[in-house]
Amino acid sequence: MPMAADLLAILGRGIQKLKADAPNEDISSWVLTEDLEVCDERSAHLPVRVPVDDSSPHCMVGGGDLNLTAGLELIVDLRPRIVVCAYGDRSDYLKSINGPTESEVMSSELGRRLVASPHLASSLPYKMKPGIVVWPRSRSITGPSNTGQEIRNIFDLALDEEMNDVALVTVGVHAPRTWTYVGKNQSRDTKYQSLSVRLFDSEEVLLKADYEKYAPRVDALRKSQSFARNWEREAIGISKIVRDVYGDAKPKVESK
User: Fold this and answer.
1) Which domain holds residue 202?
2) Is position 186 within any domain?
3) Is 92 part of a structural domain of the chain?
């Protein structure tokens, strides 16, 4: 059994609508991104989901649902006191259409699955279910909403709640960037250095939980063109983060 965590943070990977005419402001209009998702020409999330096309140069790793599924397994293993999902301000694409925060959508789905899953019900007594802290759309901060800011938001909450042990979970392709930001934030701000931080790879968490069930899904993700495409972009982005030349604007992807 892994060491317990005070706070579990399930990192965000985007939300989309299934129907274009669904009301933007309604949480129920939105779903978490699939393992792969077609993005726009600058690799930003499309507000309305389109069919996955792994051969498209605009298809990347999504992973919102994957992260949440792994997070549910970690809730059983780590027994956190608090869970946060996609804990940060809305991205520009959500603000521009008066959409909800990703935290609102993912947290709502987390609450639903905590109640609906027989596996969780049998593994997690009611009295041990964690509190879910949501980032509401009424709360806004200056600057871009990205992984670095999400990590700071999580750390600040842990300190505010007088918690020490923080667990993060995200898809494997996103894990190196996440850990780079953990190091940056703890190196630069002494108040974060008291925190004990662990990072979990969503795919590995699921393989450990049920190899036969999740191995085909993980294998398909890892062998996809989208994963290879995303990995190259992540490597470039991490290099810029380390050298302090990273900008939030994403490069345009040209169709060939």
Assistant:
1) 7-166+197-242
2) no
3) yes
Tokens of 160: 């505010």
Q: Give the span between the Cα atoms of 219 and 225, in whole angstroms.
A: 12
Residue 172 domain-assigned (yes or no)? no
CB 162, CB 135: distance < 8 Å: no
Give one DSSP letter per residue of 30-93, joined into a string: EEE--SEEE--TTSPPPSB-----TTSTTEEE--HHHHHHHHHHHHHHH--SEEEES-SPPPHH
Give every strand in the sheet of 82-85, ordered side by side.
Answer: 131-133, 82-85, 7-10, 165-170, 196-201
Rg (C-alpha) for the chain, rounded Å, is: 18
Is residue 60 situated within a structural domain? Answer: yes
pLDDT tens, N- to C-terminus, the chain (256 residues)? 668 899 999 999 999 999 999 999 999 999 999 999 999 998 889 999 999 999 999 999 999 999 999 999 999 999 999 999 999 999 888 988 999 999 999 999 999 998 887 667 667 655 567 899 999 999 988 888 899 999 999 999 999 999 999 999 999 999 999 999 999 999 999 999 999 999 999 999 999 999 999 999 999 999 999 999 999 999 999 999 999 988 755 544 444 4
Q: Count of domains in the chain?
A: 1
Cα end-to-end distance, the chain, whole Å: 49
**Contact (Cβ atoms closer than 8 angstroms) between residue 71 and residue 85:** yes
Tell me whether residue 156 is exposed, middle or buried, using C-beta atoms within 10 angstroms of its C-beta: 0 to 12, 13 to 18, 19 or more: middle
- By the 10 Å C-beta count (0-12 exposed, 13-18 middle, 19+ buried), 26 is classed as exposed
Using CB atoms within 10 A of its CB, is residue 212 exposed (0-12), middle (13-18) or buried (19+)? Answer: exposed
**Residue 205 DSSP SS3:** helix
User: What is this structure's pTM?
Assistant: 0.93
